[in-house]
Design a protein that fits this description.
about 450 residues; binds ligand F0G; about 40% helix; globular; about 15% strand; 3-stranded antiparallel sheet; Aspartate Aminotransferase, domain 1; 5-stranded mixed sheet; alpha/beta; Aspartate Aminotransferase, domain 2; 2 domains; 14 strands
Length: about 450
């Protein structure tokens, strides 16, 4: 077992319930073999997402008591604005209640039917917000992003040649913005290198197209740059973030990830006119621009979380814990996307369960078994999630690790559960859908085992 020691001690605990196998058998059947339908109280270790699931620090909780709930001009807004300017460096800062609202505000302002938004790989909400505003969401990730077994330090990189081809094909006038997702969640939580950011930025500035970061996991991305990219070892993560964001023109951010809070988001831009248009909309749907759908205390917790997330002891532990879990799986021949991501290990269900065809949802079969065997909840990212519209290239199960929530012993528990499943994996069966909603079926679909 090779897990880093947690650089914190625990002051408050939350009980989690152990269940028996019989209870879990009953609950998963009642849930229609869909882990989204299991009450969270019946989960032992919840790895469904790293979003909004962080444990806040004593310092953040203290900040909650410093919340200024004035309607306009609350002090926490100015504190957060200062912190955001220090890290991200952009001129205008607009708070929102979570990341997808920032995306919606950006795309509903910039897009019209026929416009195109390239990204390395769009996260679901980004893709949906581009499409909902009539745009085409184009993925231009480097090919290595789609090779699960290939080790590469920066698998999140954009394919710069492909991006230029897309610009020429669709026309500069039809591309109002290019996004770069750091780290690339849909591609396995993989980082983008500074060199790639520089190249993308240079290309876009040649064509006069703004570059926006989807910055949810920026600190994890910058930590990987420090560890893996020549020339950055002696720079602080804060300096690396400052340099990285300096190559862009703005960002959208879900504070539910690398701001270590349970709710919040924001948008930044250097474009004053764009900021004004967005703020006008913000008032309509979120609230006054100094609170953006959040309480003053939430803004304070985000400000303090952003200060904490660039702490390198924290990041070494954070990324090290995810890698520790991956190393345990590797030692037992359990396949996952290589290398481990910053926030999650993505199990390769296609390789793990070759006897279950994609039409019978191998990823879902593994997700169900994780719950059955150990009360562990994880998310299928494969044919159940995407197969209704297009056959996905990969059948994955994401073990997303909440920040500062679970200990190394919990990670070892998860690895042990997977090892036990691995020993009898030929006995796992596929599933068929008995009911599904017309869109985003994976959240609510009901399934049954194929006999
Ligand atoms: N961009 C990325 C890369 C994300 O991973 C997410 C959320 C969002 C945008 C949207 O942010 O949830 O605050 O509206 N990802 C979560 C996940 C839901 O589980 O990966 P949000």
């Amino acid at each position: 077992m090779d897990f880093p020691a947690e650089p914190f001690r625990i002051k408050v605990v939350e009980r989690i319930k152990r269940t028996t196998r019989e209870e879990r058998e009953r609950k998963i059947a009642e849930a229609g073999y869909n882990v989204f339908a299991i009450p969270a109280e019946d989960i032992f270790i919840d790895l469904l997402t790293d979003s909004g699931t962080s444990a806040m620090s004593d310092n953040q909780w203290a900040g909650i008591m410093h919340g200024d709930e004035s309607y306009a001009g609350g002090r926490n807004f100015f504190h957060l604005q200062d912190v955001v300017r220090k890290i991200f460096g952009y001129e205008h800062f607009i708070p929102t209640h979570q990341g997808r609202v920032a995306e919606n505000l950006l795309f509903s302002t910039l897009l019209s039917p026929g416009k195109v938004v390239p990204n390395n790989i769009h996260f679901d909400t980004t893709r949906a917000n581009v499409q909902a505003n009539g745009g085409l969401a184009l993925d231009c990730a480097a090919k290595v992003a789609y090779c699960p077994d290939e080790e590469h330090p920066f698998k999140g990189n954009m394919d710069v040649e492909l991006l230029e081809k897309a610009i020429l094909e669709h026309g500069v006038a039809n591309i109002p913005v290019v996004m770069l997702t750091i780290t690339n969640n849909s591609g396995g939580g993989q980082p983008v290198s500074m060199e790639n950011v520089r190249q993308v930025s240079a290309l876009l500035h040649k064509y006069g197209i703004p570059l926006f970061f989807d910055a949810c996991r920026f600190a994890e991305n910058c930590w990987f740059i420090k560890q893996r990219e020549p020339g950055y070892r002696d720079k602080s993560v804060l300096e690396i973030a400052q340099e990285l964001f300096s190559y862009g023109d703005g960002c959208t951010m879900s504070a539910k990830k690398d701001a270590l809070v349970n709710i919040g988001g924001f948008l930044c831009t250097n474009d004053g006119e764009l900021a004004l248009r967005i703020k006008t909309k913000l008032i309509l749907i979120e609230g006054f621009p100094t609170y953006g759908g959040l309480a003053g205390r939430d803004l304070e917790a985000i400000a303090r979380g952003l200060e904490e997330v660039v702490d390198e002891d924290y990041l070494a532990y954070r990324v090290g814990q995810v890698k520790g879990l991956a190393d345990e799986l590797e030692a037992h021949g359990i396949p996952f996307i290589k290398p481990a991501g910053g926030h999650a290990v993505y199990l390769n269900a296609k390789k793990f369960l070759p006897h279950i065809p994609p039409a019978q949802f191998p990823g879902q079969s593994l997700a169900v078994e994780l719950y059955r065997e150990g009360g562990v909840r994880a998310c299928e990212i494969g044919s159940l999630m995407f197969g209704a519209t297009e056959a996905p290239e990969m059948e994955l199960v994401r073990l997303a690790i909440p920040r500062r929530v679970y200990t190394s012993a919990h990670m070892q528990f998860v690895a042990d559960v997977l090892c036990r499943i691995s020993e009898r994996k030929e006995s796992l069966r596929g599933y068929r859908i008995v009911w599904q909603p017309p869109v985003l079926r994976h959240f609510m679909a009901k399934l049954e085992p194929v006999v």
